[in-house]
Amino acid sequence: MLRPWQLEIQLEPNSGKAIYLQIADAIIKDIHSGRLKAGDALPGSRNLAQLLNVNRNTIVEALNVLINEEWVVSRERKGIFVSTVLPAFSGTKNRPPAIEKPVTPDRYHIHFDDGHPDSKIAPITELARAYRQIFNRKARWQMMGYGDEYGDTDFRKAIVQMLNHQKGLDTHEHAICITRGSQMAMYLATQCLIEKGDYVMVENPGYKPAWQTVENAGAKLLPVSVDEDGLIIEEVIAHLRSRKKIKAIYTTPHRQYPTTVTLSLQRRLALVKLSNEYGFTIIEDDYDNEFCFGYRPVLPISSFPELKNYIYIGTMSKVVAPALRIGYLVSNNPELIEKVGALRKIIDVQGDTIMEQAVLQLIKDGTIKRHIRKATHHYKAKRDFTATLLEKQLGDKVSYTLPEGGLAFWITLKKDTNWSQVLGKLKAKGIRIIPPDNYSIDIPVNGLRLSYGSLSEEHLTEGITLLGKYL
């Protein structure tokens, strides 16, 4: 099929308008001027990308804008054509502009985050391909309608199969809700479980965003200390005997946040027994399960068949990339799951169905499994490299245990430290670490969560060397 039309455009990278919108508006202008007429075929995306010397994904984004605004139509296996019925021409006034913030230099060039994965090794190409395939394969009316507030059914079944086969749970697709990340799962769980005046036990040190979610739901926090075997059961018992209205405990037993310790089997069994006896729910945040450097990860508390009340929270963001906002919430409480679905429908209606189906495709074709295997080797090498640096630069100043998985070290200082002074010196060098008071209730812990997953060896070397200098 001949496509004689040639797009004439001078792209302006510094104009403040996204490149894909510049391309879309240039095509709209040619349609309006008559250079492109109803029924005319556009060149293929590869040809346009070569012509304009841009990434093909940029062309795909531009074509998606034109399809959504009904300037062009996509015909399966034939191509993209100018619509026979065109929208009223109005430039771009009906389209929200792509607002770009003023470019300012980042004051931090090294950021020791709380354990993000390395986006550079994420299967982005495979995910983008799967997304396009799903988008093109499904009928337009199927994609643009509302889906299930609990998430795509086939995707839920795939997550359930993974949880049952790999993590020992005994659940089903009606007991799970797909969410936009684990933080949304935590919000839904607490809003549907907690009433004003309730108390929730939390690990201290622990994960402050979860604490804030609990408090936002109307509950008060009861801190439980952590040692080398995880949360201290004696403190849990003391809280339970205080006769407060304790609704739940929030815990990260697989690799406790931030200390990375694993809750011992003896304490897991004790916690399950106490939960059943006193009727509180165990909210288990399994944020860091996939990357295990030992023989196999410890199974979740939620896999214990005798446990009567649990909420299990997981995420795909660590597996692929933080920008992929897919998490999930599982519970053996049907009434709670019903409430979660109802609340989810109010605040979000549904998730990203197309992205869920794209990730499902990567699960089915083995891409996710291969990525986890590759990433585990990658992170193990990074862990060993980081351990060598710690020993060399901070060996006489800190103590730590080599983590058997995950993406961070927990280091404790052998002497009291003026963290305000250390943070100020690091900031002056463009290095950011999470201050210890971010992990603590009341008295800050004299420890530091040092992540290595997202940093290059060069940045790890520079950051840890300067940290050793200032401590």
Taking the alpha carbons of the first and last residues, their distance comes to: 69 Å
How many beta strands in the DSSP annotation? 15
C-alpha Rg, in Å?
26 Å
The helix-and-strand class reads alpha/beta
Superfamily at the CATH H level of the largest domain? Type I PLP-dependent aspartate aminotransferase-like (Major domain)
Element pattern in H and E: HHHEEEHHHEHEHEEHEHEEEHHHEEHEEH
What's the arrangement of strands in the largest beta sheet?
4-11-10-9-8-5-6-7
Mind telling me which CATH architecture of the largest domain this is?
3-Layer(aba) Sandwich
Could you characterize what this model shows?
The structure is a single chain. The protein is α/β, with parallel strands linked by helices. The protein folds into three domains: 1-103, Orthogonal Bundle (Arc Repressor Mutant, subunit A); 131-365, Type I PLP-dependent aspartate aminotransferase-like (Major domain) (Aspartate Aminotransferase, domain 2, 3-Layer(aba) Sandwich), CATH 3.40.640; 369-470, Alpha-Beta Complex (Aspartate Aminotransferase, domain 1), CATH 3.90.1150.10. Helix content is 40%, strand content 15%. It has 15 helices and 15 strands. It has helices at 19-33, 45-52, 56-68, 124-137, 140-144, 153-166, 182-193, 208-216, 233-240, 265-278, 334-347, 353-364, 367-394, 419-428, 457-470; strands at residues 72-75, 79-82, 110-112, 176-179, 199-204, 220-227, 230-231, 246-251, 281-285, 310-315, 327-331, 398-400, 408-413, 431-433, 447-451. The strands form four sheets. An eight-stranded mixed beta sheet has the order 4-11-10-9-8-5-6-7, sandwiched between helices. Strand 6 and strand 7 (230-231) form a beta hairpin. Helix 1 packs across helix 3 (56-68), helix 7 packs parallel to helix 8 and helix 13 (367-394) runs parallel beside helix 15 (457-470). The longest helix has 28 residues, at 367-394. The relative contact order is 0.12. Mean pLDDT is 88; it is low at 99-105.
